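Quick one, tokens below:
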């Protein structure tokens, strides 16, 4: 698998990055995990809209899903349309949520351009086996494990600390983990995000081979968050930056 970072800014788009979006490619199939604010423009540097194989949404906060509105427009009105419906996997109610976001009637909403599916525990998406687990967040949110051959990547989405993430990430080649909060900040909300120490601790307990830190808000430094994660995770730590490519 090849991982390309489309957007890695946490909570809001930043001055140098769109919000969350990650492109996984294998056997010529393109699976996108999240399509947050500003991501569609960056995505088109790597993949044209008709080349998208499928999209998986970790949850329905705007910094993880809102550029689906732009995708709907491109799929409906772009050159060469109509194109085959683009499969989108997400939490229950994704179709209605996105119809509301674009002020569409729920029937048909975006269903003529996008084929909506609700996450299952396991599903086959193109050449990938995709497993999900419910996370700890104010809205229904899922961590996503993508497997191809003998390689695996786990993406945390947004979550507070929890054992389900450790179990899903067990033995993974890569844990792509958010680190949106700072360690030892007494004002950190509970059940919302991970600190660098949380990210490192979950990676260590799961026995993952590599940790990639992402979803750092623009008011923090990515390098600082990654360095902090090294206090709890002894393995290799890398930083997600816009358009970075990782071989898995």
């Amino acid at each position: 698998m090849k991982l390309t970072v489309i957007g890695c800014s946490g909570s809001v788009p930043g001055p140098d990055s769109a919000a969350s979006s990650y492109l996984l490619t294998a056997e010529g199939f393109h699976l996108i995990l999240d399509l947050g604010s500003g991501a569609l423009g960056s995505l088109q540097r790597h993949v044209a809209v008709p080349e998208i194989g499928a999209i998986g949404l970790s949850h329905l906060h705007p910094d993880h899903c809102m550029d689906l509105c732009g995708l709907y427009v491109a799929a409906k009105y772009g050159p060469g349309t109509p194109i085959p419906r683009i499969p989108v996997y997400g939490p229950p109610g994704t179709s209605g949520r996105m119809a509301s976001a674009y002020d569409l009637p729920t029937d048909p909403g975006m269903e003529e351009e996008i084929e909506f599916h609700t996450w299952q525990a396991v599903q086959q998406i193109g050449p990938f086996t995709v497993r999900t687990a419910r996370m700890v967040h104010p809205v229904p949110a899922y961590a996503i494990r993508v497997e191809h051959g003998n390689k695996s990547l786990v993406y945390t989405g947004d979550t507070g600390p929890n054992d389900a993430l450790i179990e899903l990430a067990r033995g993974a080649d890569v844990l792509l983990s958010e680190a949106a909060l700072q360690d030892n900040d007494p004002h950190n909300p509970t059940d919302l995000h991970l600190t660098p120490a949380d990210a490192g601790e979950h990676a260590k307990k799961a026995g993952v081979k590599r940790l990639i830190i992402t979803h750092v808000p623009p008011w923090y430094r990515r390098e600082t968050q990654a360095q902090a994660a090294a206090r709890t995770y002894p393995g290799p730590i890398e930083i997600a930056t816009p358009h970075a490519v990782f071989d898995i």
